[in-house]
Design brief:
By secondary structure, the protein is α/β, with parallel strands linked by helices. It is built from 10 helices and 8 strands.
Length: about 325
């Protein structure tokens, strides 16, 4: 199979038939073998019924339905696990991502031997104050912190080699940072391509201001987990030793001061309590490193979601 198209959605009953018909036209015109995996993230409208109807007409349309809303990251993660195409395309269901971009993205990732080609919406139809300006700030900070330089990190339209999406886990709100996750997994050939941005035709945006705060918190998590997720003792143990040693040195100083210089009433000196705090905190950090090692080596069900139904998938 050439392509898997993964489409997470929430309450998009109006746009789904039009989007699928558009994708079908593009795929047939280019003679691609494909599948469309649609993930219903707990919709409370008739979106799932639309997916059933679309699958009845075209067996390349497949679906996954969550029992409740888990978020876009969870939907993408399940789609990634189900995808069978050699290359995997993600796009939003609101018709703001154009399926006409698929052939050029497919050609670019194959000819350039890239791991990821990310869409870049240079001309946007979003509100400048609530979306465009915050997005530019977000992309700038993310690029400096992660080393992955993209103008539009959060663009939903991307294409991946299959080995990339099979090697990463997407959870929480980390769908915004899939290129960063891929980098930490060893896939560093990432580029971007300007793509068309369509004005929203149906419904309303599902994202608010809180996504920027959550986004930066998730970036901090990714940076930490990416560097120390497999070796938590290296961070907790290091600082535990530093803090414990500081407390130990203070304790030695106070002991020498009392014995050699006959300075009594050690408990009246603030340094005495600082030494105790450092020793206790250093020990706790060191133990946290051990616990982190145990957790990282035994965690196996972090991405478990209750799925209400599937179409065309085992």
């Amino acid at each position: 199979m050439d392509l898997s198209v993964i489409i997470p959605f929430l309450n998009e009953e109006e746009s789904l038939p039009e989007l699928v018909a558009w994708i079908e036209r593009v795929m047939n015109a280019n003679q691609y073998s494909y599948e469309i995996i649609m993930i219903d993230d707990g919709s409370n409208d008739d979106s799932w019924e639309k997916v059933i109807q679309l699958s009845d007409k075209n067996n390349a349309v497949k679906g996954i339905r969550f029992q409740r809303n888990y978020g876009k990251s969870a939907a993408l993660n399940e789609g990634f696990k189900a995808a069978k195409g050699d290359y995997v395309i993600t796009m939003d269901a609101d018709l703001q991502d154009s399926p006409d971009e698929i052939p050029s993205l497919y050609e670019m990732i194959r000819e350039g031997n890239f791991d990821i080609v990310s869409g870049w919406k240079k001309k946007r139809y979003d509100n400048a104050l609530t979306k465009n300006i915050p997005s530019k700030l977000y992309n700038s900070v993310t690029g400096k912190m992660s080393g992955v330089k993209l103008h539009d990190m959060n663009c939903g339209l991307k294409i991946y080699r299959k080995k990339v999406i099979k090697a990463i886990e997407v959870y929480g709100e980390m769908h915004r940072y899939i290129p960063v996750l891929a980098k930490w997994a060893g896939f560093k050939k990432v580029t971007e391509k300007p793509v068309a941005h369509q004005a929203r035709k149906y419904g309303v945006s599902k994202f608010g201001w809180e996504r920027f705060i959550n986004g930066f918190l998730d970036l901090a998590s990714i940076m930490f987990v990416g560097k120390y997720g497999k070796k938590p003792m290296h961070i907790f143990g290091f600082w535990g030793i530093i803090v414990f040693f500081l407390g130990f040195i203070i304790g030695i100083y106070l002991t020498i001061a009392k014995i050699a210089f006959h300075q009594y009433n050690m408990t009246d000196r603030p340094l005495f309590y600082a030494a105790i705090v450092c020793v206790i905190l250093g020990t706790q950090l060191f133990l946290a490193g051990f616990l982190g090692e145990l957790i990282s080596r035994n965690s196996h069900d972090r991405n478990t979601y209750n799925i209400d139904g599937k179409i065309g998938l085992e």
